[in-house]
Amino acid sequence: MSSQKSNKSSHHEADSKMEQDANRKAWIFQPSGLNFVWGGDSRYWVIPKEPRYLPVHNGMPAELKMVSWLEVTGSFEKIEPGKTYQIGFKISFKPDAAGWDKAPVFMSAKIGKKGKPVWKRIKSVNQNFGKPKSGSEKPVTIPDESDGSFQISVSHEPLNQEDTKLQFGLYEVWTGRWKTGLLIHEAFVQEV
To answer: Is the CB of residue 13 less than 8 Å from the CB of residue 32?
Structure first.
């Protein structure tokens, strides 16, 4: 069940559901398990709701209708000291997507609220936007090989139990340009 706010919030707050994919050795976040700035307003985002009767996701992506402030975030609590985690998103574009050609898209991650953020520019978003669009493209993983993987390492020191979440996100908040047509299929956190 999605915890999309129907009262006064214009944002979508994640539910706590994640799925473990044993084949990929990753934790998968479906769209309802992510936070979307402006995701509580269907003029900006359409966030699929989790079906109540199925233990797995329904496979529908979150659809960006139109935003100038892209901020999609998630958090992962199952980190361990001394481990390294790779983070990514699976995305695609609708045929009428616009505004991505020169948008500087970044990913960020940190451990805990007070952790030092690690940032990486994700140029593959712009490269995938530039491909011919027929509407049937399969989702691609970002960052891709051209970007290199996006990883964060957890210190070997014991973790402060109050500040142990891996927080991550996908951002384009700098240009002020309107962006449309992005589909977010999932995010993942994978131990490497």
So the answer is: no
Is residue 66 predicted with pLDDT exceeding 90? yes
Could you please report the per-residue DSSP string of the chain?
Answer: ------SS--SBPP-S--EEETTTTEEEE-GGGSEETTTTSTTTEE-PPPPTT-SS---PPEEE--BSSEEEEEEE----TT-EEEEEEEEEEEEEEES-TT---EEEEEESTTSPPEEEE-THHHHHHTS---S-PPPEEES-TTT---EEE--SSPP-TTS--EEEEEEE-SS---BEEEEEEEEEEEE-
Instruction: Name beta bridge partners: 182.
Output: 93
Give the span between the Cα atoms of 187 and 120, in whole angstroms: 16
Confidence of residue 143 (pLDDT cuts 50, 70, 90): very high
pTM, 2 dp: 0.85
Q: Return the pLDDT at 57.
A: 47
Tell me what pLDDT residue 9 has: 67
Domains in the chain, ordered, with CATH? 19-165+176-191 (2.60.120)
